[in-house]
Design a protein that fits this description.
By secondary structure, the protein is of the alpha/beta class. Helices cover 48% and strands 14% of the residues. The structure holds phosphoenolpyruvate (PEP) and magnesium ion. Its cofactor is Mg(2+). This is Phosphoenolpyruvate-protein phosphotransferase.
Length: 575
């Protein structure tokens, strides 16, 4: 019998593969001593574990070398040296043969002696060796006990990742060739792991609350990211049914590809721009494959994650340049770092906060770390000559924040020009509207910015006071709610009164239930995960803007999201 869990469909599509649990195993064991006659066998077991650990670490090192460069892989060399060090290995084997300790027990005792010696030394370098010993011993112990540690980087066969939660940097390290999908206990539709799954175009279900417990035994898992179902231990009949469903989805995708080169125009001839969101330069391939007309959001903070050093100006310049060149002259909106919240950067010593989403994040952190900010701004300005760059600041709450960020940008531009570096003159500079204060004061902001992009993931979180990462309050994620629609309406009207354009790069922009409303409200640009672009184009081609304006007017005067959703259904079914 299979078990079906229902969570939040976070990234469309169907995937089937065996479960790979990212949950850390319990490495506790009961202390036992061994018979003298068994000691040779125990030593052999220990040596086998050392061998297996070496194979594992070598794999991780090779992967890290390719992914983040040799200097970041050096730590694994240190780990391999520990495994070859007779001063560490010798005493463990002696404890087994001489004191008849079990291999796990001998390992733990010698490990603890080494750690306390190293930790008591003054020298920083020696103190760090304690961390190496801890890491390596944990791996050897996991082999001795037959309870493997999770290591997403070393996955080399098709799997579905099962985890309590995935951090943005965990997600950034997933290798799409092998990771066919993922399922988590925690999270909501707009948590960053869900967003990353959409940009990687791998099916995902989040917020199931109990997948780590239910799928602990491994086995075959089916993920239906379209509806949010997860089937654990699927039967042959279920596998067949889902194979058929997957084929149908594939067929639909092929039909949609016929719209790839089309303009995005409503039935009554109103054109809007359909753009895509990216996290890394590699995502541009998906943007082009799905016929997006630009990039409406490049989340640059992903360049800073999954590594322990900060990206320097030249490295960033190359990343921005490659995106701009690949996109030819199509618009590319690059958002400056939105670090903080759930997006941690190991190279920055970020304070632990009680309310990180209300804390020191995004432009607040950038303005507080001017050198970090300047490095990014200079890289962007240098790259501007390679395409159609627009720069956007995240999490702007006040006009002063925007002005301070813009002044720094101008300062960097003047500096580069004085050094005879080419920089484009007419770069548009805009803001994300994701804090209610900016949405409410949009008329004032519209006088000073070149464009707005509405970030509904955060705007909904802050308007409804509902943590976007928390599955228990995910019912408050209500893109159709009139409270939110009134804010959006205010932003669009205020921008248009000043002849400025408005985009949306939150997940709502690609939500088929919201698209008719947004057309009616007069949104100019829709930016979404690449996989949603063609569906949105097909939908918009079937809509009449004048009808959608009536729909939007009625929605704005409605009391709740249910009423609005019913209205949308009524209007769109008439088509
Ligand atoms: C697009 C947004 O930014 P992020 O999801 O990266 O916070 C948003 O808040 O809607
Ligand atoms: Mg945001």
């Amino acid at each position: 019998m299979s078990k079906i869990l229902n969570g939040i469909g976070a990234s469309e599509g169907i995937a089937m593969a065996k479960a790979y649990s990212l949950a850390e195993p319990d490495l506790n064991f009961t202390e036992t001593s061994i018979e003298g006659s068994a000691s040779a066998e125990e030593v052999q077991k220990f040596r086998d574990s050392i061998h297996n650990t070496k194979v594992e670490i070598t794999k991780i090192r090779n992967h890290a070398e390719k992914a983040v460069g040799p200097e970041h892989a050096a730590i694994f060399e240190a780990h391999l040296l520990v495994l070859d060090d007779p001063e560490f290995i010798g005493p463990i084997e002696e404890k087994v043969t001489g004191e008849l300790r079990s291999a796990p027990q001998a390992l733990v005792e010698v490990r603890d002696q080494f750690i306390s010696t190293f930790e008591n030394m003054e020298n920083e370098y020696m103190k760090e060796r304690a961390a190496d010993i801890k890491d390596v011993s944990k791996r050897v112990l996991s082999h001795l006990l037959g309870r493997p540690l999770p290591d997403p980087a070393s996955i080399d066969e098709a799997v579905i990742i099962i985890a309590d939660d995935l951090t943005p940097s965990d997600t950034a390290q997933l290798d799409k060739r092998f990771v066919k999908g993922f399922v988590t206990n925690a999270g909501g539709r707009t948590s960053h792991s869900a967003i990353m799954a959409r940009s990687l175009e791998i099916p995902a279900v989040v917020g199931t609350k109990e997948v780590t417990a239910s799928a602990a035994g491994g086995g075959m898992v089916i993920v239906d990211g379209t509806v949010g179902d997860v089937i654990i231990g699927a039967t042959a009949k279920e596998i067949k049914a889902y194979e058929l469903k997957a084929e149908n989805l594939e067929q639909e995708r092929e039909n949609l590809l016929e719209l790839k080169g089309d303009e995005t125009k409503t039935q009554d001839g109103v054109t809007v721009e359909l753009a895509a969101n990216i996290g890394t330069p590699d995502d541009v391939d998906g943007v082009l494959a799905n016929g997006a007309e630009g990039i409406g959001l490049f989340r640059t903070e992903f360049l800073y994650m999954g590594r322990d050093t900060l990206p320097e100006e030249d490295e960033q310049y190359e990343a921005y340049k490659s995106v701009l060149e690949k996109m030819d002259d199509q618009p590319v909106v690059v958002r400056t770092i939105d670090i903080g919240g759930d997006k941690e950067v190991p190279a920055l010593d970020m304070p632990k906060e009680l309310n990180p989403f209300l804390g020191y994040r995004a432009v607040r952190l950038a303005l507080g770390n001017k050198e970090l900010f300047r490095t990014q701004l200079r890289a962007l300005l240098r790259a501007s000559v390679h395409g159609n760059l627009k720069i956007m600041f995240p999490m702007i709450a006040t006009i002063q924040e925007f002005e301070e960020a813009k002044a720094l940008l101008v300062e960097c531009r003047d500096e580069l020009k004085a050094d005879k570096v080419d920089v484009k003159d007419d770069i548009e500079v805009g803001i994300m509207v994701e804090i209610p204060s900016a949405a409410i004061l949009a008329d004032e902001f519209a006088k000073v910015v070149d464009f707005f992009s509405i970030g509904t993931n955060d705007l909904i979180q802050y308007t409804f006071a509902a943590d976007r990462m928390n599955e228990n309050v995910s019912y408050l994620y209500q893109p159709g709610h009139p409270a939110l629609l009134r804010l959006i309406d205010n932003v669009i009207k205020s921008a248009h009164a000043e002849d400025k354009w408005v985009g949306m790069c939150g997940e709502m922009a690609g939500d088929p239930e919201a698209v008719p409303l947004l057309i009616g409200l007069g949104l100019d640009e829709f930016s979404m995960s690449a996989g949603s672009v063609l569906k949105a184009r097909r939908q918009i081609k079937n809509l009449k803007k004048t009808d959608m304006q009536h729909l939007a007017e009625t929605a704005l005067r409605s009391p709740d999201a249910e009423t609005v959703n019913a209205l949308i259904k009524e209007y769109t079914e008439r088509i």
